[in-house]
């Protein structure tokens, strides 16, 4: 049979309930992958989610049935804004109910277990006090039944489907201790009846339940960032129909609809302001704490909060095409991805429980041979079963990844996946595109010198052919023409020449504007005056372009782009980390040197054509450098893709989200070292968690087998191991970019 074609695959996300440990996730993932029509599957224990790539021959409902058959429950996660919001609210309600139920059960279990623990505590102070075996039985039995039920249910489901998980270990360990004690109370001789483990089984279940409760709370905390993003999705909008304002559902909006956003309201979807002005709070998306002033012609993003003014907006994106939806999708994708180390963990988890059961049996047999004491043998084997639960291993990587990417997203740093984190950790060279990255990206026209001394005519011609262009120099020209109240004429047959300039037809004449290379290509007659002006402007660190009518130059324009205020500080921060900084630009040598000196980069390359940026990236990679490319995410997309790590700064455009490993939601150079910092911090936390999870089992299991750990201590250690791993990951939530306002 031919392997399924990945190119024809569709992706579905499933919310999974009923997983109790990494073994469950590993078993379910293996089951899904073995299903006919499934190309690939990833199951995330910490997020309780499965992402399945499947062929059209198998539907989402079929995948839900596969999960149900495997002993878990599943529900498709919908992408449509309204359905996604409803599903999110249902997940929140389910999580709240689970947390509340677990706490209530833990409180009941604690009340019943305390009397069983009191004799042990008093014994430590030399006070002999014992409860009768029947009373111990009466206190321990409700715990074994009601608390144990959740573990028995999970264990039976796992065994029924040919697997073994944490529930199997807990059920075997506590049941062995409980049933051994029941036998001694009701069926054994008086001498044997003294050996009771009721307090062990009860306290183990109570401690593990406490660990589960703390784990639930901690897991919800680590994923708080993406939950807060999902909560930003509005459900209604105020649509303008004629002279009426009608509240409608977001799903009823269409592209081009006219809506009003009142003061204090959340912006319902992406759009363009056609009337009004206000300040918008974009902190939840960009990490920018100060409100951003918006005026007619500015873009607004769904999920942001309007300030004091009413604004009238024309919708430009809906549903999953909105910027907020793209961000949520990117963050969720990053959190669901798996580190290479996690694959090793999954393999360990798959065989872990059967191996531990064998070790427990060997421990029991060994102690029986060595001492002949059933009590000692039961205690040691129960301790092995209890302490070995692999929860910490399953939580180590995903919780750190969720917390790290969540903290980054809150600061306006979007990390695509675990591979991007790995690559960011290795970066030793950063290439900056100059315009819009190290500079403001809004050049100002400083000089307009017409050879016939009619500067207004020169500016009118130059600005007219730039109408509709998105080039930064075009914006500067049009602004300058508007300031002089010049009347512009819309051009025809516009042709942009990347890295050189632009050609268009204006009132029947060919007009060109660009650098010396373009003028040479068009056989424009050289002008001594023009050449002298260009050199004069360039020697002053300005960008100079020539304007020509047909084959005759008619004037020269000069522009200046300012370096960003924080660019030098960002570059210094990177250099302090031992990272080499390089600026590349299509500008002249002198203009490039002017900016390079201002921001303090190690080196720069000038007159680099757009396609040449790829070559620079590849040359550095061939020399053995690990290269990050920082650009605006639009015209730098090929170079972003070619680099080891692409960092798109300040756009959040579709191409940035698709191409770059990291997208910075605002044009702040200091976010570049911050992105590398959170990447390194997250990887460091993953490695810490995996170390502690592995070392805990490596040390704990032999100690338990040697009889050096009582079952109660083993239960407490097992519960705390999971909590400590998740708590360690939660520390990443406190991360904030350094030296940011």
Automatic annotation (TrEMBL):
InterPro entries assigned to the protein according to its UniProt record, in alphabetical order: ATPase_P-typ_cyto_dom_N, ATPase_P-typ_P_site, ATPase_P-typ_TM_dom_sf, ATPase_P-typ_transduc_dom_A_sf, ATPase_P-type_domA, HAD-like_sf, HAD_sf, Heavy-metal-associated_CS
Membrane topology of the entry: Multi-pass membrane protein
Stretch forming the signal peptide: none
Transmembrane stretches, start-end: 105-127, 133-152, 164-184, 196-214, 348-370, 376-396, 689-706, 712-732
UniProt KW keywords: ATP-binding, Cell membrane, Membrane, Metal-binding, Nucleotide-binding, Translocase, Transmembrane, Transmembrane helix
Gene3D superfamilies (alphabetical): 3.30.70.100, Calcium-transporting ATPase, cytoplasmic domain N (3.40.1110.10), Calcium-transporting ATPase, cytoplasmic transduction domain A (2.70.150.10), HAD superfamily/HAD-like (3.40.50.1000)
Compartment(s) where it occurs, according to its Swiss-Prot or TrEMBL record: Cell membrane; Endomembrane system
Ranges of residues in domain HMA: 10-75
Family per similarity comment: Belongs to the cation transport ATPase (P-type) (TC 3.A.3) family. Type IB subfamily.
Annotated NCBIfam families: ATPase-IB1_Cu, ATPase-IB_hvy, ATPase_P-type
Name of the protein: Copper-translocating P-type ATPase
Source organism of the structure: Pseudovibrio brasiliensis
Taxonomic lineage of the native organism: Bacteria, Pseudomonadati, Pseudomonadota, Alphaproteobacteria, Hyphomicrobiales
